[in-house]
Amino acid sequence: MSVSTVSKKSIDIKIQPVEKSRLADIDMSNVGFGRIFSDHMFVCHYANGKWETPEIVPYGKMELSPSFSAIHYGQAIFEGMKAYKGEDGEPLFFRPDENWKRMNHSASRMCMPEIPHALFMEGLHSLIELDKAWIPDNDKGQLYIRPHMFATDEFIGVRASDTYTFVIFTCPVSFYYKDPVKLLATKEYSRAAIGGTGNAKAAGNYAASLFPDKLAKSQGYDNVLWLDARLHQYIEECGTMNVFFVIDDAVVTPIPTGTILGGVTRDSVLKLLKDNKNILGLNSVELRRVSIYEIEDAYMQGTLREAFGTGTAATIAPIAKIGFAGKDMNLSDERPISTWLYKQLYGIQTGKIYDPYNWVVKF
Ligand SMILES: Cc1ncc(COP(=O)(O)O)c(C=O)c1O
Predict the structure, then answer these.
(1) What average pLDDT does the segment 318-342 reach?
(2) Which of left, alpha, beta for 266 (phi over 0: left; psi -120 to 50: alpha)?
(3) What distance in Å separates the CA atoms of residue 90 and residue 129, rounded to the nearest whole number?
(4) Which H or E run contains 217?
C-alpha cells in the first residue's frame, strides 16, 4: 500500500468532547445511509472578512435565525467524502485535496469565501481523530463526511452574505443504492444549463432535481438521467453520480461542459480505465458528447454492454435499466468492467490494493 501522510497542525481548534459517546447504542451492522450522526461536529464562523477560531463540539442542533440569507437565497454548498478503515484500523482518506478544491470552486461560484487548506484539512483530521471509532468495518460501510458552508447574514434582500458558517459532520453509512439502479432520461426537465451552477456542489441544484426525481420514482425508477438543457439529447449525469457506458470495446463518458459535477470518483475511474485498458479488453476510453439516441442505437444493436454510475456515496453503481421515450433498455447482469472497477477502487481506498497514484491519505 502507498499512503501519503499529511503533517499537522498549524491552527488552534477548541475541542469540547461529548461527556458520553452515543456509539454503544448504534447497531453498526445496520446503519443505512445518512440518518446516524457521529458524536462531534467541526464548526467555524466567518465574519469581518476572516475565519474565526474553529471549534469541535458535540453533534447537535445549531442556532438558526429565520432571516439567515442561506434559507432565502440559497447560498449553501457542500462536499461529500469518506473515511475508510485501513488495515491497521486507522482512517484512510481518498483524495481529500480534490474535495477541498471543489468546495472552493463551489464557494467562488456562489460568491462565498474560500476555505483555507489548513482549516479544511486540520478540521477534518481533528474531527475524524476524535470520532474514528465510528468508521464501520470495511465489509459493513464507511464514514461519510459532509463538509458544508451556508450564509448567515440576518438580512432580507438579494446580495451575497457577509457572514458564513463552515461545518463538518460525519455519519457511518453502508450502501447508498442497495440494488442496481434504474434511471429515467427525460426531455421535460433539465438539471443545469451552460453558464449555470451545474459544476458547483450548490444545495439549490439538488432542490431543483427533487420534483423530476419524484416523477421518475413514481414510474418505478430510482433517479433521473439528466440530458442537456438546450437540445435535450446529450447525456449529462445522474443526481448523485457521473455516468459511464460500455459500448463494444469502448468506455464512454460525457465530456464536462460546465453543467456536470466534476466527480472525484469519475476522475479516478477514468485513470483506472486508461491505465488498465489491456487487462479489461478495452480499445478506448472516450470523453465526448454521448447522445441518448446513441445509447438507444447501441442497445438495439446489442453493443451496449454495461452502464454504471460513479460517486463517493454511490461508489460504482451498476445501472440495470434506462427508460427513455416510453421504452426501457434492460441491461445485462454480466458487468465485468464495473465489477472490476468496484473491486479495484475499493481495494485502493481501503488500503488492500497497492495505490500507484498516491490517492490514499493518512493524516
Ligand atoms: C450531481 C453529482 N454528480 C456526481 C457526483 C459524484 O461526485 P464524487 O465522485 O466526487 O462523489 C455527485 C456526488 O457528489 C453529485 O452530487
Answers:
(1) 98
(2) alpha
(3) 9
(4) helix 203-218
Question: Half-sphere exposure of 225 toward its Cβ, with a 13 Å CA cutoff?
Answer: 29
User: Which of 142, 312, 342, 346 has the most ligand 1 atoms within 8 A of CB, as the residue to mutate?
Assistant: 312
Q: Running DSSP on this structure, what letter comes out for residue 71?
A: H
Contact 31, 136 (CB under 8 A): yes
340: Cβ contacts below 8 Å, ≥ 6 apart? 276, 279, 280
Whether domain 181-332 has CATH 3.20.10.10: the reply is yes
pLDDT of residue 3 exceeding 90: no
> Whose CA is closest to atom 4 on ligand 1?
241
Identify whether the C-beta of residue 1 lies closer than 8 Å to the C-beta of residue 349: no
Q: What's the one-letter identity of residue 47?
A: A
Domain boundaries, the chain: 4-174+355-362, 181-332
Give the CA angle between residues 296, 243, 147 to the nearest 5°.
Answer: 155
Q: Which fold, 4-174+355-362? A: D-amino Acid Aminotransferase; Chain A, domain 1 (3.30.470)
Sign of CA dihedral 143, 144, 145, 146: negative
Number of H helices, E strands in the chain: 8, 20
Q: What are phi and psi of 272, to 5 degrees?
A: -60, -40
CA of 145 to the centre of ligand 1 (A): 13
Q: Is the pLDDT of residue 281 over 90?
A: yes
Return the closest-CA partner of residue 75 out of 154, 137, 159, 6: 159
pLDDT of 5: 55
Atom of ligand 1 nearest to the CA of 267: 9
Q: How far apart are CA 166 and CA 153, in angstroms?
A: 14
Q: Which is the closest atom of ligand 1 to the Cα of 102?
A: 10
Contact partners, residue 205, CB within 8 Å, separation at least 6: 191, 192, 197, 198
